[in-house]
Structure formats: structure tokens, C-alpha cells
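Forwarding the complex inputs:
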Amino acid sequence: MTYDLVVIGSGPGGFDCAVEAAGLGLSVALVEKDFLGGTCLNRGCIPTKLWLGATSAIEELHNQAKMKIATGEIHIDFAALQGRVQKHLTGTRKAMGMQLKKLGIDLVEGLGSLSGEGTVSIATADGEQKIEYKKLVVATGSKPIFFPGLEPDNDCVLDSDMFLSMETMPESLIVVGAGFIGLEMAQVAHRFGAKITVVDAMDRVAPLEDPEVSKALRSTFKRWKWDILLEKRVSGVRTVDGKALLTLESGEQITADKALVAVGRGPVTQDIGLEEAGITLQFNQIQVDEHFIAAPNIYAIGDANGQIQLAHAAAHQAHYVAAHAAGKIDTPYTSGPVPSVLYGAPEAMRVGAMENEAFLTDFDTCQTSRAQLAANPMAQAHAFTQGFVKVVWSGGKVVGITAVGHEVSRLTTAATMIIQQDWTAEDIHSIIFSHPSLDEALLMALKAERKDIQ
Amino acid sequence: MTYDLVVIGSGPGGFDCAVEAAGLGLSVALVEKDFLGGTCLNRGCIPTKLWLGATSAIEELHNQAKMKIATGEIHIDFAALQGRVQKHLTGTRKAMGMQLKKLGIDLVEGLGSLSGEGTVSIATADGEQKIEYKKLVVATGSKPIFFPGLEPDNDCVLDSDMFLSMETMPESLIVVGAGFIGLEMAQVAHRFGAKITVVDAMDRVAPLEDPEVSKALRSTFKRWKWDILLEKRVSGVRTVDGKALLTLESGEQITADKALVAVGRGPVTQDIGLEEAGITLQFNQIQVDEHFIAAPNIYAIGDANGQIQLAHAAAHQAHYVAAHAAGKIDTPYTSGPVPSVLYGAPEAMRVGAMENEAFLTDFDTCQTSRAQLAANPMAQAHAFTQGFVKVVWSGGKVVGITAVGHEVSRLTTAATMIIQQDWTAEDIHSIIFSHPSLDEALLMALKAERKDIQ
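Prediction (whole assembly, two chains):
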């Protein structure tokens, strides 16, 4: 049998693509070398959010205690938490497997690689299996990358996969890389009482965000007594005498129980026959056209094409590719604004353009308007009032929304819709925002006086 | 001097109306008999949310403890919390006062009443003061109402104002009236350890909501060991020997440290010369036309006109009336969907039509689609997975969204926009929902299979 569609990789991109294609009537096989759900479910977003959720009361209590309203203490049983995470993942994978069965999608477990036109070869537990496809979707995802000297040893030097598999939480932690992955995991360790050191080569934490967001986050982390070492290049980190020993290029050394290396992720595109099949890789990223086609009858979506390393971007691409493969759509893919969220307390949220983005200078009239969270009763209620919402305008339209502070992830979907819909000042009053709500900080920012971007 | 606009009442309707009118160039006076901000700020939504926020860690801890992940205890210093509430209210009122000053709005403190055409008479601390207006906005709000036998005595029988002013939290509480006000306050008392009894004449809690929401809320409250007495008529409640003694019509008696009577709120429209000025009252509600005009040159907005008892509805009406009074707009007012939110843990959220609403039978094709929160990783992370999101469709368009469960208030603004914009199935994929997020439960509900409403 030749499948209409074979999908390699069952992360948010691959799984959704298989499901949607089957829903459109295609015969589908899904190839997965490890666990259903891929990195996001098993070694990424989901376990991290389960950790953050389970420990969120600690931070709430801390904030109320600082206002002298609350006292008390909370102990989290890390082993129990890890057990709960595994139970959730197992349950979710089971539900996913049932969904595949219900839709008649064949799950083939093993490492898939391209072996000649129209054929995928899978190294299964029972030996090699070959399946034929009319169309193929490569959704192989990404994995942690390392610079020389920063390779994890799964002893005291960990990547994010290993960190999420720990049996005990360390009492001290060095995080190399101040991006969202490192910062979310550091927040969890901090809640368990770990002494945190963050090291980054850039001059700010969350270096991809608006510099004011970086500044606000750093100010909170400093209050938490984190050591934040910026503009520091790491020459190496290794396990020495049961501790992580990090050496900066300056020669300075830092030690902690564990080191988490979170300097980035790169596509999983090697040694699976991609280039032999006529696919072009650049920095390991699969090059695709405006239909996500990488070679005749072969699509690539999600982290594997390297365009946006976010689960929801992959899922949105999957939705398009399933329809395209089924012949339901032929116009080029348009993404619309893709939100990006740092969870925890505080949180950060961004969708659309940032004030500091250079391309803004191409626009006619760029302005910002903003609201501080200190004026918002919900931020006040949770005793965490630092932070703001900033709106970026261009030609009278909203082109970007950025926020940092208490639960600003709440603003994400509304902000995405506002940007997608090119809101102008006239649109602000078309919607009734509930009162009181954190969302009103977004309303305030939209209504606030605008200032030209210099 | 004759003011272009005089506003009586400085709640969310009156204050916003004064500010917006001044922004449009009108000369404005604002009359307030008590505190700036009215009920919502001083005796309603805001203090309640500060209570809920300050105690939220207790519920988070409780949920994680039930999963055997967390242990610990949290003590809230109620006196400190009340001090913090007062500090927040004072600060907010001060900021509002400064805003009035900056905009050149005259604040006149005292009870305002209409005294002859174009004149408001104010009973100030320094005696009677008269001011002249070209146009008047009556935004006098609402106050708790009582049935005979349920009058509060400010000893053990309290209305919501008195409840929010307590110096200690009672160890046991009877709440008469299972609407949002009673349920939010009962949740707070519960977190302080109070034994809760809820009594309502209706056959369900939150009787204005979708019956499935009522059922989900009741199930949670039952797990919390609340006594929920439904379809019970109260013949009276009074203070006896330092306790609240409630007598049902059946003769059964219930006692507790305090009783909170929260059976509804009614307009504040008596004894201020409204009818003498040609205004029509019906059930104390000021009757208005489609421009909120109650009599020549007199508008009425917010709770006083009794259309929707919600602060954000009042503020939206205020925005319209300010523009109408300034001659900027003459088309009839259109509200758009007005969201309604029960805060706490769990929360409930509703915007647009509910499945059970009779008028739906007028539509051609009414359907519902739904998603359970149990499948959502954020609900899982917070160990509170009961609840659902339900979408009501009519003629292929989204006309209502209802949810109950962990933090479903997060869905409010996006849900309001979806209904306001008449989303069809085609619109669902126009927006990228961030992953993971509670908002994805809304996405799942929108995408789910629809069932005809019987």
C-alpha cells in the first residue's frame, strides 16, 4: 500500500498534520522514533509548565508575604511532581494514540529516513520496514545545541532534556543561556530554593525580547538574589568532584550542584537521507518554498525548517500543509502574527513587531503607547505590580504588543487578534473589556497617549 | 458658570463619562456623595478581587496537596489584608482625583439632586450648593436590595458593603443568594477556613448562568464540604445571641457566626428629584431611549438604568454618552457582547448567548460544540481539571461562549472579540493560539464537532 501522506515526527507539527490530513480523507502513516508528542510534550513546554503550575503557589505566597499579608511555607515533593508529570505524559500519549487509531492513521515506531523516491525506511524494533508515500512531511523537530566545551555529560552538566529528567532538584544551579527555556527552568529551581546563577554572552536576559522587558525581568531576578552574569563568554563547563564547574573566558570559575546548558536548539535533519532526496539544508534548516515544499512531494514544517521554533507555529504550518497535500488549498502560506510567551511569575508576552526592531524604520509613522501594571487592580491583588504593556503603532495601526509582569500571558490571544486585524484607534471601543481584569492594562495601553519612536 | 456637562456619581460609568467628556473639550463637574470610584472600587469588585488575589495561593496549594505533590500551610493576616485594601483604595482614589484636576473637572462632594431645569443641588459639608448644566448624566449606581425579613443589621447579618468592612473573618458563614457576589465572597471566607452554607430559592447556584456551569460549580463547592441549600425560601435572618440565625419557610433554622445577604442590587434613584424632572422610573430603573436619554438633556447610564449591572457595561455606555453629549455621535448606542465573569478558583465566564436561552429557538440552526478542560495542560498543571468551554453557534456563526474551571476568565476578551466579529468555522484558523495555553481549550471547543440544540 502506498500512503497518500507519510509524516515523520509526531510533535505538534507532525501529529496535527497527520490528524488533519486523515480528517480530509487521506490515508496517513505517522513515523515516530521516540515518544508520541515529540519534544514539546515529552521534553519541553509541557513538563516545564507542569513544574511551573505545581510550584506557582510558592511565588504567590512569596509576593503576599512581602506585603506582610501572608505567612506560611510550602513544600513540594519533587519525586511526586515528577511522577505526576510522567503520568500526565503517559495519559496524553495514550489519548493521542487512540486518536490516531480512531482516524485510521498507522503509527510506525522507529527512526524514519528517506530511502529512494517515494519510500521511507524505518528502523523499528523488529528490523527495517519500508513504506511508500505519495507525499511526505518532514516534521523531525529540533534538539538542544551546544558550543564546544558546553556539551552536557548527564552528570552535573545537563541539557534541558536531562534537566527535566532529574530525580532531585539541585540546591544550586548555573544556567548557561538566558533565553525563555533557561529562564523558565531557572524559575522553577528558584522556587525549590536553589541558588541561581545565569550566564549569557549577550548584554541582557531574554535577548530576543524588547530591551525594556529584559530590564524588567532582570530587576525581578536581582530582587530574588540571582547572580546574573551578562556579556560573559563561557569557555567550558564540566563535572568536577560531583559539581558543575563553569569557566568563563576571563578565567573566572563558578561552581554549582548542576549546570543547565540552554543556549539554543537546532533542527534534527542529519543522517536521515534528506540531502540525498534533493532537499537543501542551510545551517541544518530545511529550505522550503511558500508552500513548505522542500523537494518534489516533500514538505518540511516546524522546527525542522527553522523558521519559527514554536509549537503553535508548527501546528499552524501543519494545518496548511495537510490542506495543501489534500489539494484543498494552493495559495501561499500566510502565518499571521505568532505569539511568544515566557511563563512563570513574572511572565512576558510578545506578538508582532517590537519597538527596537530595525525594520520599523521602514514604516512611515512609528509610535508606542503604554500602560504600567501598577495601576491594574488584578496585578495589585496578586501583589506583583512591576511590569507594563507596550503597543507599537505604524501608520495608525497596531503592529506589535509586548508585555511583562503578573500573568501577562493572559493578553496573548486578544493581542494576536488585534494585530491580525490591523486595529486602529477607532477599533479600541468596539470591544467591551471586562472589569476588573488584567486585560484592561492592554486596553489602557491601546488608549494611552502615543509617542514617536526616535 | 454653566457646565456643559454635570455627572452625578463617580463610579465606573460616571467617572469615565466625566473624563471622556472633558477630553472632548466639554466643561465638566462631577458630583459624588461618598468616595470617588463608587461601589465597584470601594465596596464591590475591587476589594473582592484583592481578597481573592491575596488568598489565591491557599487554593493553589490545596489543589496540589490533593494530588499529593505539595504540603504546607498558609496563614493570611486578615487585618493586614484589610489595611492593604484600604491603602489600595485610597491610592486609587487619589490618582483619580489627580486625573480630574489635570483635566479641569470640578469635583463637588455631596449628595446631588435635581432641582429645577438645568440645576443640580448638592448637599455638601458646607451647606447646599447649586450648579447649572447644559447636559446632565445620572450615574448614581446601585445598592444592595433586601426582601422583608432579610434586612442587614450590621451585627451578624451583613450586606456586601458590611461584609467587606469586617475586622475579622467569621468561622462560619451563611450566604443568602448564590449569585456571583455571594459566591466570590463565600470563596474567600472558605479560604480562611470558614464553614460555608449557601441558601438560594432557585434550583441551582449561579442561576443566571448555563445550567451546566451551575452544576460544575456546585460539584466543586460540594467537594469543599459547603452546605448548598437550594429551592429554599428564607423567611428571615437576624442576630440572636451574637450569632446569625436564619429561618427557612419550612421552619428549619440554621445558625452561623455571620450571614451575608446577597440577593441582588437595585438602582439608587430615589429622593433625588428624578421623577420631578420628568424621568420615568420602572422598578426604580431609569427608563432611557437608544441614546441613554431619560429626559430632555438628561442621560442615565450604568446600574441606574438597570440594563446591565456590570462596571464595564457602565463604562462603555459612558464612552458613548460623552461622545453624544459632545455632539460627536448621533447613531443609537450599540453595546456589542458584554462579558460576565465569576472570579476565584474555579472561575466562570460567559459572553453572548447561552445554550439554554429561550430566544435561541428563534434562530435557524442552533448548535453547541465543547471541550473539556481535563485535556488542557495548563488546567492539568494547576491540578484543577474539572470544567469545560462551550461554544453556541447559530446560523453557522459563534453567538455565545461559556466556560467554567481553572482561570477561564483568561478566555474573556478573545471570546468577546470572536462573538463581536461573528466568527464562522473559517475564522478559527485565522489566529495562532499560543501553546500551551488555557486559551487552547477555547480553540478546541471552536473546532469540536457540533451538536444540534434540542
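Chain B touches chain A through 72 residues (CB under 8 Å).
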